[in-house]
Design the sequence.
């Protein structure tokens, strides 16, 4: 039976090439003091920082800065940002970057409004949904996480090698500027990782779901996958192909967005497994997922899952209709591996990333928190260790 | 080149079987006095009226009523509703019904907040966007227009046989309750008409667009069409098939919704032609569109449009990939006609609805307002007359 759900997504998106001119007016709706949050400085090299500052200056906005947000954003950086917001009386946060910068901003936004807490990790451990938050505006520079229209964030605590999710309606970005030309400078490797991250949301959160998902949504999920399958290899080869970058950017926003996941069981087992890898080895999230997901599908393939995996292969990789579900599912997994490791050029094994089996046990234990990861096929600790081994 | 656009859709949707319990709390966010707007009273026969009143009573809401909203809602009914709202100090409107009831409610909502105007037709003629509106909540009883998540309305003035659109962000429903079981009692004919109305939004507003639409959106548009092609005949035959009703209901909300039409040229030429038919003959909108659209496609088919129409046929009706674009386009139109007139069982000609050629000239003149209807292929008055003749 199709599950009941509540859908609401309030983010206002300015999509396209000539939209940044609206940044000042949108910020002014919230106040005059902003915290500009960004990463390693590529936005200074490519001119985006200057264009943003120009817009803010013209609108009389006072700008404070938090730079150096890490690819897997740290709880300490979140705490630092919240401190600035409180000290300076910040009215809104502008996140300029991809998922890490946006997630860090969400952490700051929620922490500032959390009635006196100073450490985001405390909030994460309490499991409290973030109902209130300082307004967040996003200038997106990477197509990957969907964090620009979503209410969730993932924060890392490297002191204890943990990476956990937090979120709530208060930290969903109010406004997002999605200009595909801002992704022209994303290197091929990050483009490939980001593209697989988009796909991973569909695989892991939605499509291979134990819920009885509406057929319309399954069809749309397949077409978002097909969009990435078509355009990711183009963007890897031709970084300034606008059509490819635009399709990937809009796909990223919708792949992890209430429309596509409401009514799905949102199990995220592969994300749990990957978060362990990132938390222990600080690897790129999308790459970790590209290594895990084909192996996970191989591991869970049996008579109960074959039809779903076969459908994916037929609709997304043109797998022969004449094959049995089991053979079609095998062909689908092979096609997906070929896509990740040949078309996108990602390295196919954990050992290629310098990861060995030494922590599999600890990571598996942590991924399933000593119990079972529920999904289309429930996984216990031993299952997870086996999947890690297949990735070696 | 893909067009820039701004996306925002703030409607909160409660989807599913057990959601009406949230009506009272949602209404209470806006106040204590509501105007309940509905049509001919089927909601009294099927028990929905009682269930709604029970919820409102439990939340201490005072209810005023406007019943008898017409299938093509009249400007006079809108004016009457606005008068009640002003006199009684109404805080919010609850529209219980399909597109007509919702559109009527949007007219009321905008008129009440229009600084002293008493006639919605004045507002329509002024072309002013409705930036402010009394909050609207919807309890949807029919899958068709998408008005439940959209910011537009169509109102008829039968005194002068005109049917025109009006809208703006102020009248977009704040909350919509979409319970597929509330459509179980929709008769087969209305189910068929509503289903084609869903498809018509994709054909006329989005898919056959002169804009260079993002491929991802075209793919998703195709899958919403496929959803209707799959489930409409099921719902016509099995009115209480939950899976079919759920897919059709969610398809209706997304077919005419910023996500699917932002960046498209939103030409609506067939809607302009159909609005003339409804304004002069008061026929069911979706039926008028089902008669017009296959003929329109036939009329505009040439070397410049064949590829687009062929793609539709291949992706939605399994038209043979080996056929030339021109032959595939012809097959697509044939398949669409077969779907409308055989699978959905709709009568195929205007003459079947008692319409003759006597007003074609007046209607064509009015449809293009003496100029040209811009679209994938611009249509002047003579073109429109020719298309009407093909429908006879």
Sequence:
């Amino acid at each position: 039976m199709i599950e009941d759900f509540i859908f609401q997504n309030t983010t206002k998106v300015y999509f396209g090439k000539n939209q940044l001119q609206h940044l000042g007016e949108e910020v002014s709706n919230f106040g005059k003091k902003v915290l500009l949050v960004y990463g390693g400085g590529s936005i200074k090299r490519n001119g985006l920082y200057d264009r943003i500052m120009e817009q803010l200056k013209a609108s009389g906005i006072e700008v404070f800065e938090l730079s150096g947000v890490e690819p897997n954003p740290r709880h300490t950086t979140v705490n630092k940002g919240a401190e600035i917001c409180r000290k300076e009386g910040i009215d809104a946060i502008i996140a300029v970057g991809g998922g890490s910068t946006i997630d860090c901003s969400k952490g700051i936004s929620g922490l500032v409004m959390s009635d006196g807490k100073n450490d985001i990790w405390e909030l994460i451990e309490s499991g409290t949904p973030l109902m209130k938050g300082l307004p967040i505006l996003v200038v997106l520079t990477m197509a990957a996480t969907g964090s620009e229209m979503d209410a969730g964030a993932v924060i890392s605590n490297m002191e204890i090698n943990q990476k956990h999710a937090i979120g709530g309606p208060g930290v969903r970005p109010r406004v997002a500027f999605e200009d595909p030309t801002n992704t022209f400078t994303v290197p091929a490797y990050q483009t490939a990782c980001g593209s697989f991250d988009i796909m991973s949301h569909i695989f892991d959160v939605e499509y291979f779901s134990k819920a009885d998902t509406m057929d319309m949504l399954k069809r749309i999920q397949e077409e978002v996958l097909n969009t990435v399958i078509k355009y990711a290899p183009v963007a890897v080869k031709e970084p300034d192909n606008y059509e490819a970058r635009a399709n990937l950017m809009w796909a990223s926003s919708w792949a992890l967005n209430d429309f596509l996941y409401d009514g799905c069981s949102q199990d995220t087992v592969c994300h749990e497994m990957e978060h362990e890898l990132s938390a222990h080895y600080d690897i790129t999230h999308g790459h970790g997922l590209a290594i895990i997901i084909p192996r996970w599908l191989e591991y869970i393939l049996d008579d109960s899952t074959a039809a779903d995996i076969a459908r994916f292969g037929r609709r997304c990789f043109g797998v022969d209709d004449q094959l049995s579900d089991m053979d079609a599912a095998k062909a689908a997994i092979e096609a997906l591996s070929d896509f990740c490791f040949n078309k996108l050029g990602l390295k196919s094994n954990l050992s290629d990333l310098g990861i060995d089996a030494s922590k599999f046990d600890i990571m598996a234990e942590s991924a399933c928190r000593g119990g079972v990861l529920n999904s289309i096929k429930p996984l216990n600790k031993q299952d997870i260790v086996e999947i890690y081994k297949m990735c070696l």
Observations:
- The radius of gyration of chain A is 20 Å.
- Residues 188-391 of chain A form a domain with the Dehydroquinate synthase-like, alpha domain fold (CATH 1.20.1090.10).
- Chain A touches chain B through 42 residues (CB under 8 Å).
